[in-house]
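User: Can you fold this complex?
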Amino acid sequence: MAVSRLIRRVILGCYASHPKAKLGESAKYTPSKLRARIKRDRDAVFVAISDRRIVGFCVNCRDDGVLQLEWYGVDPAHRQHGMGQRLLQHLINSGRRRGCHKVWCDTNAENRASARVLSHAGFEPVCTLENHWYGQDFILWQKVIPMMRVVRDEEDSHTVSRPAIRLVRTFAPRERTLVAAAR
Ligand SMILES: CC(C)(COP(=O)(O)OP(=O)(O)OC[C@H]1O[C@@H](n2cnc3c(N)ncnc32)[C@H](O)[C@@H]1OP(=O)(O)O)[C@@H](O)C(=O)NCCC(=O)NCCS
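Assistant: Here's the predicted assembly.
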């Protein structure tokens, strides 16, 4: 399974991570484990494709109304071309479509590239977890997914925006060609 191989390669090549943590993490995304996740939730894994090759991935976990970004990554040869940003946008759109009001994740505090991409996508750092997983510092990030609808305010008859339960939105054609569910 190509996506499993890419995930393993990206995780093991991650400069900002403890060696034992990398081994433990990559073992979570074997082909059989990925298949089981996709069976439970068809949107849990999606990939970015370029020239018919898988060059990026995103693994996420929906927990009722909250979406956890577990891992995303891009093949080193395809980095710095906006692919990471596109993956996060697809994740946010997917969260909205799945009725989630928030996406969250944690990143190693030394992972500057990911911090940059998360910030561009509108994630905000919540706090730093010092001496956390394998003694490393982690930053906790979140992004509230705006779900607004226009309603008529009865009292002053002005049109106002209020949170809605769910906003169904279709993907832009460009995004549909780039990002596909990993099935
Ligand atoms: C994080 C990652 C997915 C970004 O993918 P990408 O396709 O290069 O992302 P983009 O092209 O959308 O954006 C890259 C941004 O990071 C910045 N960047 C790259 N390396 C950097 C570094 N070492 N320090 C600071 N910023 C860095 C780029 O300048 C760019 O920011 P800009 O748009 O302001 O110029 C990719 O680096 C990766 O796969 N890393 C290893 C796996 C990983 O760390 N995943 C996240 C775990 S939470």
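Strands lie at 45-50, 53-63, 66-74, 102-108, 124-129, 138-144, 148-152, 159-163, 179-181. Residues 83-97 form the longest helix (15 residues).
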